[in-house]
Each structure stands twice: as structure tokens, then as C-alpha cells.
From TrEMBL:
Organism taxonomic ancestry: Eukaryota, Metazoa, Chordata, Craniata, Vertebrata
Entry EC no(s): 3.2.1.52
Domain Glycoside hydrolase family 20 catalytic: 182-499
Active site per the UniProt annotation: E338
Record's function text: Hydrolyzes the non-reducing end N-acetyl-D-hexosamine and/or sulfated N-acetyl-D-hexosamine of glycoconjugates, such as the oligosaccharide moieties from proteins and neutral glycolipids, or from certain mucopolysaccharides. The isozyme B does not hydrolyze each of these substrates, however hydrolyzes efficiently neutral oligosaccharide. Only the isozyme A is responsible for the degradation of GM2 gangliosides in the presence of GM2A. During fertilization is responsible, at least in part, for the zona block to polyspermy.
GO biological process: carbohydrate metabolic process; ganglioside catabolic process; glycosaminoglycan metabolic process
Signal peptide positions (record): 1-19
Zinc is among the record's keywords: no
Name of the protein: Beta-hexosaminidase
A GO molecular-function descriptor: beta-N-acetylhexosaminidase activity
Species in which this protein is naturally found: Carassius auratus
């Protein structure tokens, strides 16, 4: 109470400045049991006819017509996972579990329609995630072209289940047909500024699936540490990780992340950012980084990757050959942001090279020279690449299928206009840097962004394939990552999945409060949006 009194004037000031009122956003208790789908489906029709679900009888099954069957372990796993979300851990006996009701829904039939259900495949940028749900007696039907759409539909089905006053699970007669607005819906996590234990990465993949995110952008290494354990160059993590045994991702850790993500329809795109952001690489690889000079002698510090040595490119060739086989996704993120030119400028060998190449003193040309060769190296591994916007801004020649990530808030619309005018696909992360925190409900700011709000033709708008919420790790580790990310990232999830017209913040608030409680119930310590309570509060690990 003391704290509340102390901060009340501050809160009111913030509330008034932001133009919203205290009373508008206090959740009303009677709304708590209403259906709170998140993100909101494209087409949704529900009725007041309610069916009961009894855990003793209800089953999720493959429909007879489905191309997927019991041998599809991805779906079998998902069936078990969602059954537990709806009814709790089956190993724990509960008295209500035995009960069978007379008016109940006995099964959800999952019908995968295309000849290849893709049980053992990986999701991709082209993946069709659409599904249709029809909930009626005696059985509900979930129809999707492949397992990826089925996963999204299972999440929606589980969100439709609500507890009545007697604690019994109910689901209403409902018709849904749903598909994502954007194909690339990502979360960036940074495991370099702080090491992120496997457990926290997996928990967030789980939360991503609850929000229908489908890309884990793994900013795995950076200046501060190199936790990726390379088979080809083990010295990278031996010398570049915070600790060579405890703060690394072994090949089997990486495999586990990729498989855990795949089971949830999530792509894993690793980022190996060069030529800047590479200090930790230099610990293990001699001569990879540029020696900086003070006057006429080396200062003992190092700058970006040395772009004038053939050995740098030989290294990158071998390194990215490994990366292209470890990570199955068609894309690798190559970074290319924030290259500091002062070290290059101080080095006499670099100056000489600049003169030979006719670059003058334009270090962007040197950066492009490096990136160009790197892109050719990666293209030779048959991977596509993603890059931060500077690579495009500096005029590097890019492959047609390059994805340019727009991260600078300054002139964001103009950048989107330029990138798409040049014919490149793009994703937006500028408005969604979730590492910046502030008092109050900043999720609303993320929610109100309209990604296509820039001048351009319809063809240009089609090139915006999605966006990413980025949680950079300077102030984030396993202690605070999950509550800081959720439910703030959920705002981005709905913006990228639901129809453009879904913009009502008050309606979103009511659903998000419940969605947040649902995540809490499922074991995700998602932070509160505002005052209120959950029926089932978070009780720690
Ligand atoms: C679900 O059914 C109940 C019981 O008939 C009804 O009170 C409620 O309004 C329905 N909810 C929706 C979203 O249709
Ligand atoms: C670097 O490689 C280029 C092209 O393959 C070659 O022409 C050049 O002589 C090499 N430089 C050194 C120092 O080996
Ligand atoms: C967009 O392109 C125009 C024309 O080439 C250029 O003048 C402008 O600086 C570019 N905008 C951004 C944000 O890079």
C-alpha cells in the first residue's frame, strides 16, 4: 500500500500523458471466463451452445481421412502437450478427472489434407499455416493442409476451452477459419551479452508457440561472447565463450533447440554477425580481426574482421560450410550492422588497400567489399541470407531472395519504401525493440504499429513478409528474460498474425489479460499488464 501511495501521482501523470484513463483498463471479473483468443483468428463465429469436456473421455485423434497417423510423432507429441494444457498433468490424479458428462464433446479429429503431411519436415517461409476448426457435437474437426497448420489449430482449440463455475472444462460451438497475415513472425534472443541456459530458450519456444510465432532468430554470438561450439573451429568457444564448458551450446544442445522448435512449427535462424560485433571471435582465431593503430604502431586492440586478408575469407568459407549443415533452415542471418570504421581507418595496411582499390576514404566501400565476398561464400552453400539494413543501405549487391531487416526507428517508413522499391523482401523490427523498457503498458505502443504504413505500391507492400520482436541481452539473462518478453511480445504476435483491422486496444487488453493468465497457468512467468489477478497465479518454479 505504501508503494502504491508513493507512486500514484507518478502513475496518474503517465496515464494522462498517454491519453488513456485509469478506469478503461481495469479488467472486469465477469469477463474473465469469456473466450480470449490470442492472436485473434481471421474468421471466427461462436455460439452460446456449450459442450463439456471430460478428461476421462475426451481424446485428440487423427481423423480417418488424414494423411498423418500415429506414426507422426510431431502430432502425437502435440496431442499430448495440448491435452495437458487443457486438463493438467495426467500423472496427478484429480477427482474431477473420472467424471463423464452427458452433453460432452468426445473428440477432436485432426485431419491433415495434403498427401505429404510434412511430419518429419521443417517449416519454411513458404509454409502454409492455415487451418479450419469446426466445433460441434459429437466431435470437433481441425482441418489443415499439413502438420504446421494443425499445430496452429491445436493452439486455438486449447484457447477455446474455458472453466465454468464448477471448474469443469467447456467449449462452445464454434467455426474458425484462420491463417497468418505475415509469413515471418519472429523473436530475437541474444545469447552473447548473457549466456542463456537451454531451459530458458526452450521455455520461450514454448511461449512462442502459444502466440503463434514461427521464427526464432538466434543472435547466438557477438562481441561479448562466443557460446556456439563449432566442430571445425573448437577454439572459437574454448577461447571466446564466457566459460568453455558451462557457457557453451554443444552440437547436441543446438540440435535439441532446433528439434524442440520444429515440433512447434518454429524455424531457427542463427545469426553470425560480421564484420563488426566480432570481438569474441578474435580470441580463438589468430589474425581474423583488424589490428587497430595508435599513430604508427599497433595499439593492442582489434576492430572488425580484417577484410584485406585472404585468410579471413578462407576461414569464413569453412565456418559457414559448417553452419549451413548444422542449421536446416534455408536462411542464415549474416548481420552486417554497426561496423565501426575508426579501427580500419587507423591501420596503414588497410589504408594502402583502400588506395589500391580506389575506395578513397569511403569505408562503406570496404565494408561492401567484405560483405560481397561473404555473401558469395554463403550463397555457395545454397543458403539464403538475411541481413540488417546497413548492408542494403551501403549498396551491396544482394541475391533476389535476400531478406533485409529494418531495425532503425529513424526514417523507418522511408527505409521500407527504399528496400521494397529495390525489390527486396523485408522484415520490420525497428518498432519492436523490447529491451527498451518503461513504466506502464508499453505493449500498446507495439500493438499500434501498422507495418504496411509506408508509401508504396501494392507490389511493394507484398514484399514486407513480417517482423520480429527483439530482446537484446545487455540487461537480460535467465533471471528476467521470460517475464520481460511476455506478454509484451504477444502484442507483436497479434499484429503479425491477425487481420489489419484488428486494432481495438481496449478489446485487446481484455483478451491479453486472460492470455497472460493462460501463459502463467501453463508455467510461463509472463508479467502482469496492470492491476488484477489470475485465477491460478504463478507460484515460482
Ligand atoms: C459460450 O456459451 C455460454 C453458455 O451458453 C455463453 O454464456 C457464452 O456467452 C458463450 N460464449 C461465446 C463467446 O459465445
Ligand atoms: C588473395 O587471393 C587473390 C584471389 O584469389 C589472389 O589474387 C591474391 O594473390 C591472394 N593474396 C595473397 C596475399 O595471397
Ligand atoms: C531512400 O532513397 C533515397 C533515394 O535514393 C535516398 O535519398 C534516401 O536517403 C534513402 N532513405 C534512407 C532512409 O536510406
Amino acid at each position: 500500500m505504501y508503494a502504491l501511495l508513493k507512486f500514484a501521482p507518478l502513475f496518474l501523470a503517465v496515464a494522462v500523458c498517454n491519453g488513456w484513463l485509469f478506469g478503461d483498463f481495469v479488467v472486469k471479473q465477469k469477463e474473465v471466463d469469456e473466450i480470449a483468443l490470442w492472436p485473434l483468428p481471421q474468421k471466427f463465429q461462436s455460439s452460446a451452445v456449450a459442450f463439456k469436456l471430460s478428461p476421462a473421455r475426451f481424446q485428440i485423434v487423427h481423423s480417418k481421412q488424414s494423411s498423418a497417423g500415429p506414426s507422426c510423432s510431431l502430432l502425437e507429441n502435440a496431442f499430448r502437450r495440448y491435452f495437458e494444457y487443457m486438463f493438467g498433468d495426467l500423472k496427478k490424479p484429480e477427482k474431477s478427472r473420472k467424471k463423464v458428462y452427458d452433453s460432452d464433446l468426445v473428440e477432436l479429429q485432426v485431419w491433415v489434407t495434403s498427401a505429404d503431411p510434412e511430419c518429419d519436415g521443417f517449416p519454411s517461409l513458404q509454409t502454409d499455416e492455415s487451418y479450419a476448426l469446426s466445433i460441434d457435437e459429437p466431435s470437433a474437426v481441425l482441418k489443415a493442409a499439413n502438420v504446421w497448420g494443425a499445430l496452429r489449430g491445436l493452439e486455438t482449440f486449447s484457447q477455446l476451452v474455458y472453466e465454468d463455475d464448477y471448474g469443469v472444462n467447456n467449449i462452445n460451438k464454434t467455426e474458425i477459419s484462420d491463417f497468418p497475415r505475415f509469413a515471418h513472425r519472429g523473436i530475437l534472443l541474444d545469447s552473447s551479452r548473457h549466456f542463456l541456459p537451454l531451459k530458458v530458450i526452450l521455455a520461450n519456444l514454448e511461449a512462442m508457440a502459444m502466440n503463434k510465432f514461427n521464427v526464432f532468430h538466434w543472435h547466438i554470438v557477438d562481441d561479448q561472447s562466443f557460446p556456439y561450439m563449432s566442430r571445425t573451429f573448437p577454439e572459437l568457444s574454448q577461447k571466446g565463450a564466457y566459460h568453455p564448458f558451462t557457457h557453451v551450446y554443444t552440437p547436441s544442445d543446438v540440435k535439441m533447440v532446433i528439434e524442440f522448435a520444429r515440433m512447434r512449427g518454429i524455424r531457427v535462424i542463427p545469426e553470425f554477425d560480421t564484420p563488426g560485433h566480432t570481438e569474441s571471435w578474435g580470441n580463438g582465431i589468430k589474425d581474423l580481426l583488424t589490428p587497430c593503430y595508435r599513430g604508427s604502431s599497433p595499439s593492442g586492440t582489434f576492430g572488425p574482421v580484417n577484410p584485406i586478408l585472404n585468410s579471413s575469407y578462407d576461414f569464413m568459407t569453412q565456418f559457414f560450410k559448417e553452419i549451413s549443415t548444422v542449421f536446416p533452415d534455408a536462411y542464415i542471418h549474416l548481420g552486417g550492422d554497426e561496423v565501426d570504421f575508426s579501427c580500419w581507418a587507423s591501420n596503414p595496411d588497410i589504408q594502402k588497400f583502400m588506395a589500391q582499390q580506389g575506395f578513397g576514404t569511403d569505408y562503406r566501400k570496404l565494408e561492401s567489399f567484405y560483405i560481397q565476398r561473404l555473401l558469395d561464400i554463403v550463397a555457395a552453400t545454397n543458403k539464403g541470407y538475411m541481413v540488417w539494413q546497413e548492408v542494403f543501405d551501403n549498396g551491396v549487391k544482394l541475391k533476389d531472395d535476400t531478406v533485409v531487416e529494418v531495425w532503425m526507428g529513424n526514417k523507418m517508413e522511408e527505409e521500407l519504401q527504399n528496400v521494397t522499391r529495390a525489390g527486396f523482401t523485408t522484415i520490420l523490427s525497428a518498432p519492436w525493440y523490447l529491451d527498451y523498457i518503461s513504466y506502464g503498458q508499453d505493449w500498446q505502443r507495439y500493438y499500434k504499429v501498422e507495418p504496411l504504413n509506408f508509401p508504396g505500391t501494392d507490389a511493394q507492400k507484398k514484399l514486407v513478409i513480417g517482423g520480429e520482436a527483439c530482446l537484446w541481452g545487455e540487461y537480460v539473462d535467465a533471471t528476467n528474460l521470460t517475464p520481460r518478453l511476455w506478454p509484451r511480445a504477444s502484442a507483436v504476435a497479434e499484429r503479425l498474425w491477425s487481420d489489419k483491422s484488428v486494432t481495438d486496444v481496449g478489446n485487446a487488453y481484455n483478451r491479453l489479460v486472460q492470455h497472460r493468465c493462460r501463459m502463467v497457468k501453463r508455467g510461463i512467468p509472463a508479467e502482469p499488464l496492470f492491476v488484477g489477478h489470475c485465477r491460478q497465479e504463478y507460484r515460482g518454479q
